[in-house]
Amino acid sequence: MLIGSNWTFAQSGQTLEVINPATGRSFASVAAGGAEEVDAAVKAARAAFESPGWAKMRPIDRSKLLERVAQIIEEHAEELALLESLDNGKPKHLAMMVDIPSAVEVFRYMAGWCTKIYGKTLPVSGDGRQYHAYTLRQPIGVVGAIVPWNYPLAMASWKIASALAAGCTMVLKPSEVTSLTALRLGELMLEAGVPPGVLNIVTGDGQSAGEALITHPDVDKIAFTGSTPVGKHIMRTAANDMRRVSLELGGKSPTIIMPDADLERAIPDAAMAIFFNSGQTCFAGSRLLCHESIYDTVIAGIAEVAKALPIGHGQDPTTMIGPVVNKKQQDRIQSYIDIGQQEGAEAISAGSPLPSEGYFIEPTILSNATADSRVFNEEIFGPVLAATKFKDMDEAISLANKTRFGLGANIYSKDMNTCHKMAAGIHAGTIWLNTYFVVDAAMPFGGFKESGVGREVGDEGVLMYTESKSVCALL
Ligand code: NAD
Questions:
Q1: What biological-process terms (Gene Ontology) are attached (predicted)?
Q2: Which atom of ligand 1 is found nearest the CA of 173?
Q3: Checking DSSP bridges between strand 25-31 and strand 254-257, what pairing results, if any?
Q4: How far apart are CA 95 and CA 154, in angstroms?
Q5: pLDDT digit string, tens, across residues 198-223
Q6: How many angstroms separate the alpha carbon of residue 449 from the centre of ligand 1?
Q7: How far is CA 125 from CA 122, 130, 238, 365, 405, in A?
Q8: Residue nearest ligand 1's atom 13 by CA
Q9: Where are the alpha helices (DSSP H) in 361-457?
C-alpha cells in the first residue's frame, strides 16, 4: 500500500490473493489493509492537503504535474493494459483502446481545469448600502475514493484527476478484486513528481478497509463508484456527519431500436453495448427495447454478431470476449440466465465455444423477457441481454423508464426529432443517439434515481470536489 511516500504491508500481515480470471489461478498477492492503514493514509493525505505543496501550489504547477501524469500513463500503456488484463480478465488490446486512453484523457483534461476553477462576483444591493460580494471555490479537503473492478484504472483515474485538479488530496481504495493498476499508478504518479501524501492507496476489502474509510472522521468527502446497495450504505453512513458524497452506481440501461433505425448500425451497436467487457459495464445496454415490426430481425442479427466474437484469454489479440471477473460473478450471472428461463424468456446462447478453464460466460439473449421480470429489472452485470418489444414511442419511453435505475440509454432512429423527443423523456444521466459507449472526460457522467448522486468528469465532475463560499464586504 502507498501511505505518504512509503510502500507498506498491512500491520496484520494479511494479504489478498490476486486471481487471473482466465485461469482461476492466483499469480500475486496484495496487502489486506484495515483501519490502522486507513488512519495512517488519511493522516498523510491531511498533511499533504495542509502543506503549501498542494492545495496552495500555483494552479499552473498543479496543471503541469497532472499533464505529466497523463504522459507517464501513456508511456506505460502496454504494461498497464497487461496488468489490467491479468487482473480483470479483459482483452489487453481492448484495454489499450478504452481503459488506458480514458485514464490518459481524464488527467490531460483535468490538467486544464487546475487554472480554471474560480468564483463569481455577485450583484448584492440589499438595504441601500453598497457591498462587494463574490464566491470562492475551494477544495473540499481529503477525499476517500472507493472504486470497483470493472474498469479499475479508468475509474480510479476519473476520481484522482478530478479531485487533484480541484486541489484535494486522496486516499484511494481499489476493489479487492483488482488492485494492481491502482498500485502501479501510485508508483508512476510519484515518479511524475506528485508530492507524497497527495495520493495514498490502501488495498483491502470493503468490510475492513472500505468501512474504515467511510467512517473515518477526518475524511471530508467520499467519492464512490460501485453497486447500488453499497452506495446506499455509504449515503446512510455519510448522513451521520453530513459528509459530502458522490455516488456512481448500478444501471439497467436500455438500447431502444425504433422501426426506422439504420439496422446496419443499430444491430452491432446493440450487441456490443451489452457484450463489450463481458457485460461488466455500469451503462451496458442490458435491456433491448425493439419495435415489434423488426424484433425478430434484430434478435437474429444480435445473435449473429455475438457468435462472431471470439471468446478467450485476454492476452490473445483476437479475443473479443474475456472471462468475467471471478467465480462469484460467473455463478451469479449463470443463475440469472436460469431465472430468466424460469420467468418465461427464451435463452439464446450466442457465443463461440468456451475455453476449458477460467470464468467464462457465453453471450446470451433472454428474448421476450417481460417488463416485470427480474432479469428485466435487476442488474446482472454480465453478457446477458433481456429483450422485449414495444408498439410505439410512448410505450418505448414508458418501458425505458420502468426501472429504479437511470444511468444511460442508447436510441436508434433516423428521425432526429424522434431521438430528441425520446432523449428529453427518458430519465437517465446520459443518452446516446445513434451511437453508444461514447464516454469523454468533457462530458459529465452520472445517474438519475438509484444510479447515483452527482456527476463525474467534465465541469460538473471537477466542481464536485469543491465547496462554494460566499464572501460579502460592506464598501
Ligand atoms: P461493489 O459495490 O461490490 O464494490 C465497489 C467497491 O466498494 C469495492 O472497492 C468494495 O471493496 C467497496 N465496498 C464494498 N462494501 C463496502 C463497504 N461496506 N464500505 C465501503 N466500501 C465497500 O461493486 P463491484 O461489484 O466492485 O462493481 C460493480 C458495480 O459497480 C455495478 O453495480 C456497476 O454498475 C457499478 N459501477 C458503476 C459505475 C458508474 O459510473 N455508475 C461505474 C462502474 C461500475
A1: aldehyde metabolic process
A2: 9
A3: unpaired
A4: 10
A5: 999 999 999 999 999 999 999 999 99
A6: 17
A7: 9, 6, 37, 63, 44
A8: 206
A9: 374-377, 393-401, 416-425
Structural domains in the chain, sorted by start:
2-249+451-474 (3.40.605.10), 254-433 (3.40.309.10)
pLDDT digits (tens, 9 = 90+) for 285-308: 999 999 999 999 999 999 999 999
Q: Atom 10 of ligand 1 has which residue's CA nearest to it? A: 206
- Cα–ligand 1 centroid distance for 206 (angstroms): 9
Residues with CB under 6 A from ligand 1: 146-150, 155, 173, 175-176, 205-207, 210-211, 214, 225-227, 230, 233, 248-251, 282, 379, 381, 407, 447, 452
Which are the catalytic amino acids?
A: 248, 282
What's the rounded Cα separation, in Å, for the pair 18 and 257? Answer: 41
3-class DSSP assignment, residue 400: helix
Q: Which atom of ligand 1 is nearest to the CA of 214?
A: 20
Q: Which of 204, 193, 158 is nearest to 33 (CA)?
A: 204
Best substitution site from 16, 98, 150 to test ligand 1's pocket, by max atoms within 8 Å of Cβ?
150
Confidence of residue 349 (pLDDT cuts 50, 70, 90): confident
Q: What is the largest CA-CA distance in the chain?
A: 81
456-to-44, 160, 359, 439, 461 alpha-carbon distances in Å: 25, 11, 31, 11, 4
Beta strand 131-139 pairing with 121-122 = antiparallel
200, three cell numbers: 495514498
Helix (H) or strand (E) holding 44: helix 35-50
Whole-model pTM over 0.90: yes
